[in-house]
């Protein structure tokens, strides 16, 4: 992934990694991204769950309920002077556009 490449290259870029999933049951690479987020100061990871489980709600293990929206991104990304990369299934990509 792009995140792994930046880490392997010892990049000092600030990285804002946003992952959207239905809930923790479908959250791919959760543990790996959390480990990278904890280990590398320049990485900040955020999670959006569109339909969090009761356990997700109880544990508060996500940052936003619902879908990724421009207004929310503006609150977590300090600048628009950056490179942005999006990937995902067709419905997600249509929503992002």
TrEMBL record:
<keyword id="KW-0813">Transport</keyword>
<dbReference type="GO" id="GO:0005344">
    <property type="term" value="F:oxygen carrier activity"/>
</dbReference>
<dbReference type="InterPro" id="IPR001433">
    <property type="entry name" value="OxRdtase_FAD/NAD-bd"/>
</dbReference>
<dbReference type="GO" id="GO:0071949">
    <property type="term" value="F:FAD binding"/>
</dbReference>
<dbReference type="GO" id="GO:0008941">
    <property type="term" value="F:nitric oxide dioxygenase NAD(P)H activity"/>
</dbReference>
<keyword id="KW-0223">Dioxygenase</keyword>
<keyword id="KW-0408">Iron</keyword>
<dbReference type="Pfam" id="PF00175">
    <property type="entry name" value="NAD_binding_1"/>
</dbReference>
<feature type="domain" description="Oxidoreductase FAD/NAD(P)-binding">
    <location>
        <begin position="1"/>
        <end position="96"/>
    </location>
</feature>
<dbReference type="GO" id="GO:0046210">
    <property type="term" value="P:nitric oxide catabolic process"/>
</dbReference>
<keyword id="KW-0349">Heme</keyword>
<keyword id="KW-0561">Oxygen transport</keyword>
<dbReference type="GO" id="GO:0046872">
    <property type="term" value="F:metal ion binding"/>
</dbReference>
<protein>
    <submittedName>
        <fullName>Nitric oxide dioxygenase</fullName>
    </submittedName>
</protein>
<keyword id="KW-0479">Metal-binding</keyword>
<dbReference type="InterPro" id="IPR039261">
    <property type="entry name" value="FNR_nucleotide-bd"/>
</dbReference>
<keyword id="KW-0560">Oxidoreductase</keyword>
<dbReference type="GO" id="GO:0071500">
    <property type="term" value="P:cellular response to nitrosative stress"/>
</dbReference>
């Amino acid at each position: 992934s792009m995140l792994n490449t930046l880490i392997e290259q010892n990049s000092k870029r600030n990285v804002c990694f946003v992952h959207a999933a239905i809930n923790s049951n479908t959250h791919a690479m959760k543990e790996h991204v959390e480990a990278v987020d904890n280990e590398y100061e320049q990485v900040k990871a955020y999670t959006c769950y569109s339909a969090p489980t009761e356990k997700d709600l109880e544990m508060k293990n996500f940052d936003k309920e619902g879908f990724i929206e421009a207004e929310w991104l503006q609150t977590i990304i300090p600048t628009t002077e950056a490179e942005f990369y999006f990937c995902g299934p067709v419905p997600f990509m249509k929503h992002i556009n």
